[in-house]
Design goal:
The chain is an alpha+beta fold. It has two domains: about 120 residues, no CATH class; about 120 residues, Jelly Rolls (Sandwich). Helix content is about 25%, strand content about 40%. Strands 1, 3, 4, 14, 16 and 17 form a six-stranded antiparallel β-sheet that branches. Strands 2, 5, 8, 11, 13 and 15 form a six-stranded mixed β-sheet that branches. A hairpin with a 2-residue loop joins strand 6 and strand 7. It is flat, with a radius of gyration of 32 Å.
């Protein structure tokens, strides 16, 4: 009787262990399987980057400055493709910030010597920069700082687009050198102008400028077969709707591999480049048009009767 009981125990343990193994394999296959979406024609997209995956499973991909600058502000045009099919993803907005080091030129206004100005050059236009920081070496000051950019309206006239304002105060008891301006809106160009009125005081000294933007990621499942591409740059599409969002908590909690982006490829010309091209050719167009108008005026002048001449008498 006792050997039979031991045999039942061995069989039960074997079945239980097999069940656990099968369940673990199913979960492993589920976690590493690549999600496949519907086919998509990407001929309307302007930019593409290869996505490098090193191991199968849930991937975490941080959007780099080129994607942030060329995609729509709400990222509605992001499409992750595997060959001709979409790969569902989850868009993750984080509280982390990424730092960019801009090129800065300190300058003065010849018409207003009491004005200090810094020209801050970003690597790309349309970057979602949220704040600008720097170090102030002046020990005692109080200044209202204004950050703006110069844009062109539909008539080609320049106007100032306000980005943000801040009141900076430094006293002998204040030990921190760092100061910043928070932006109410992101810059549309690649040039930010920071200004302040010094009044009857010497100019303040600023250095170590940094611009900051929020880190944005996409989460998805993939295998490392070298066939993944991220498409962006299409203003005429809405955000995709993927069922993967139903298990967003599970995907965000899963162990993730770090995917990376390759070199950007421009698939077609943008409307901005076409506008610039048209602007360059516009000088020739207006010059030719002016010559045509002058020629027409000369012809009309010859056809009109001269002043003081008498009209012919009727028979």
């Amino acid at each position: 009787m006792k050997p039979a009981r031991n045999l039942y125990l061995v069989i039960w343990l074997f079945v239980f262990g097999a069940a656990l193994f099968v369940r673990a394999e199913i979960q492993k296959a589920s976690s590493t399987a690549q999600e496949q979406g519907t086919p998509l024609d990407v001929s309307a997209w302007t930019y593409r980057k290869p996505v490098f995956v090193t191991r199968a499973g849930v991937q975490q991909l941080q959007l780099d400055p080129e994607v942030l600058a060329h995609a729509q502000p709400d990222f509605a045009d992001l499409r992750l493709m595997h060959e001709s099919n979409q790969v569902p993803y989850i868009l993750e907005h984080t509280t982390l910030e990424y730092r960019l080091i801009p090129q800065v030129t300190a300058t003065n206004d010849a018409h207003n010597p009491k004005l200090s100005r810094w020209i801050i050059k970003l690597p790309l236009p349309n970057l979602p920069v949220k704040r600008l920081s720097c170090d102030a070496n002046t020990l005692l000051f109080k200044r209202e700082m204004t950050a703006y950019e110069e844009l062109h309206d539909e008539r080609g006239e320049v106007y100032q687009h306000l980005l943000g304002r801040a009141l900076w105060t430094r006293t002998s008891t204040w030990s921190k050198k760092g100061v910043f301006v928070a932006f109410d809106s992101s810059p549309q160009s690649d040039t930010i102008i920071l200004e302040t009125e010094n009044g009857d005081n010497p100019p303040i000294e600023l250095e170590n400028f940094e611009s900051w933007y929020a880190v944005t990621r996409i989460l998805f499942k993939a295998i490392p077969d070298g066939k993944h591409f991220l498409y962006y740059g299409n203003p005429n599409v809405n955000s995709p709707q993927y069922d993967l969002g139903l298990i967003a908590n599970e995907v965000q909690a899963a162990s993730k591999a770090e995917a990376s982006l390759g070199v950007e490829k421009q698939l077609k010309k943008t409307w901005q480049s076409e506008l610039e091209k048209a602007g360059r050719g516009g000088v020739v167009f207006w010059a030719v048009l002016a010559l045509v108008v002058v020629a027409l005026l000369v012809v009309i002048g010859r056809l009109l009767p001269k002043s003081g001449s008498t009209p012919p008498k009727a028979d």
